[in-house]
Design brief:
mainly alpha
Length: 154
């Protein structure tokens, strides 16, 4: 049998499900797309410049960058996770010194990263506000919602 996570072990019937962060979901999507782009850019550089640079170095750095981009998704909920994402955006832009088209690709992904983080923060704040308002309403109406005309005979 598979080992249960901490959240699975602590779950009890009736417990509300913890809401996932939209910021983390958006940021993870951008990082995963970047990982694919970094991998395919590695293959392109390997094919175009292996006579100029060591093929082992090209593959090691490119595949290593792809792996780091994927693993960075796991730490996005940590306070330093978004900062790591910004560092990886810079690394992708600097890959343009090896393959000039990566300057454009890196800048476009950095814009996508910025937009995803900014929009995710806004959506998370709106969701938190809705949750607070719902909790206040639930506290003020402990019997729950009543339908119009309930208890009346036609």
């Amino acid at each position: 049998m598979a080992k249960l996570t901490k959240a699975q072990r602590e779950w009890r019937p009736g417990m509300p499900k913890k809401r996932r962060s939209t910021k983390v979901m958006f940021a993870s999507t951008v990082l995963l797309l970047e990982a694919f782009v970094a991998f395919f850019a590695t293959l392109a550089v390997f094919g175009l410049r292996r006579s100029e640079m060591s093929p082992v170095l090209i593959l090691a750095v490119g595949i290593g960058l792809s792996v780091v981009l994927v693993l960075a998704c796991a730490v996005l909920s940590k306070p330093w996770g978004v900062a790591l994402g910004w560092v990886l955006q810079l690394v992708l832009i600097l890959a343009g010194f090896v393959e000039p088209l990566m300057f454009l690709v890196g800048v476009l992904f950095a814009l996508a990263w910025w937009y995803g983080i900014r929009t995710g923060i806004r959506i998370d704040a709106e969701a938190a506000q809705r949750a607070r308002e719902q909790a206040e309403w639930d506290a003020a109406h402990p019997d729950g919602p009543r339908s119009e005309g309930a208890g009346q005979n036609p």
